[in-house]
Amino acid sequence: MTPANQQAAPLLDCLRTLANRQRAAFHTPGHKQGQSAPAPLANLLGTQVFRADLPELPELDNLFAPTGVIQAAQALAAAAFGAEQTWFLANGSTCGIATAVLATCCPGERLIVPRNAHQSLISALILSGAIPIWVEPDYDPDWQIALCPSPASIQAALAEHPDAKAVLLVSPTYHGICADIASIAQITQQYDIPLLVDEAHGAHLAFHPDLPPSALASGADLAVQSIHKTLSALTQAAMLHVQGSRLDRNRISQALQLVQSTSPSYLLLASLDAARQQMATTGEVLLDQTLHLAAQARTQLSQIPGLAVLTTSSQSPTSPYQLDPTRLTIDVTGLGLTGFQADEILHQSLNVTAELPGLNTLTFILTPGNTPADIAHLIQACQSLATTSPHPTPPPPTPHPSPPTPHHLSPCRLLLPHPRPTHRTGNLSDQRRIDLSLSARYSGFAARRINYS
């Protein structure tokens, strides 16, 4: 696909034309292009958003059987992201993960999955009836964060369960840890099964040479990306990408009809077209700026007493994992605070909001939407946090129960995750009861900003 072709935005252009056309509307939605929009909402959003909030008019194509502008927009997206075929998702990566599992596994069939999988994978297992074969991700004891499953662990799981229908990975993780997808893809290819990647946090990777390679570039058969997370689509807008012949694409299309609305928002779909156009034409320049700001923030944060910053040097020299440099994770235990406490202070008092608080850490997402002023604000807020925090010696960690050993655990008992619980992740256990005194360590944090898109 040439750069000139990538300048086009067929779905966005069509929606703009129809939004500005005067006509008597006797179709949904009921606000009739804003004519009966509630005044407080119109004051907040403006009137043009209602004019563009249109249903599946003939000119706007059909998401589930595209032959017009949606088909053209999806083809442009496939070329931009390095896929053979792309589907737009109006129900977030959640529906993409469900579709990936539904398209590869029938009830009772096995799927190799990591224990740090997203909650959407649990829902997909329930919907599909697939049997999870759990693989432990590697673990960084210094930072107390899960990494990714190693190629050796995937090889061992497939050797034990050669009838598995697919392998699913999460890469990058919330902390920006990227799996060795290329090595794992070689393994799955030996078994002639698809490699599925939950790449919700990696939509930007294809657009800059200094970032870790994308899942598709590394040999994955399918990748699901939240375009709203690291690019500039509207919240809940995502894409599913496929390459190769190991997946039945008709089955993917059919599965999507099970998990997406029959009335998809064209605001979301058009934002996918616009975000693709932006990254395909100016993505490398935009990410140059983002990487510069990330490096600046990483350097300045590391100079604040009591803070540590996760970098590639934090890992073993022989580590197979790469770190997405646009993801900043800091350890605040040197300030005598938990990550949850630091998060609340930053959010409530210093007007800086992190993406993910943990027991010891805070993680921040940098995207092309961040500015030098944002970085200055972050540094100033962290300096203030370091100045005002008590700096006591943090208490020793409470040991956690060992994870259950069986590979296949019932999906109906969702309990605390391993190796440590947060308010964003879940896991499965064969124990019917656990020691809830562990939760005392987490008292006081607010379960806010939970994002399952």
Structural overview:
The chain is of the alpha/beta class. Helix content is 35%, strand content 13%. The strands form 5 sheets. A 7-stranded mixed sheet has the order 1-10-9-8-6-2-3, with helices on both faces. A 4-stranded antiparallel sheet has the order 11-13-15-14. The chain has a two-stranded antiparallel sheet with strand order 4-5. Helix 7 links the parallel strand 2 (110-114) and strand 3 (131-135). It is globular. The chain starts with a helix and ends in a 25-residue tail after the last strand.
Observed structural traits:
alpha/beta, disordered C terminus, 7-stranded mixed β-sheet, Aspartate Aminotransferase, domain 2, 17 strands
CATH class value of the domain at 3-279: Alpha Beta
Q: Detail the poorly predicted runs.
A: 400-453
* Overall pLDDT: 88
What fraction strand?
5-15%
Helix content: 25-40%
How many helical stretches? Answer: 14
Termini separation comes to 29 Å
Q: In which order are the strands of the major sheet placed? A: 1-10-9-8-6-2-3
Number of strands: 17
Largest sheet: 7 strands, mixed
Give the name of the CATH superfamily of the domain at 3-279. Answer: Type I PLP-dependent aspartate aminotransferase-like (Major domain)
Inertia-based shape: globular
Examine the coordinates and then state which fold CATH places here, giving the name of the CATH topology of the domain at 3-279.
Aspartate Aminotransferase, domain 2
What is the CATH architecture descriptor of the domain at 3-279?
A: 3-Layer(aba) Sandwich
Structural class: alpha/beta
Could you tell me the radius of gyration in angstroms? 23 Å
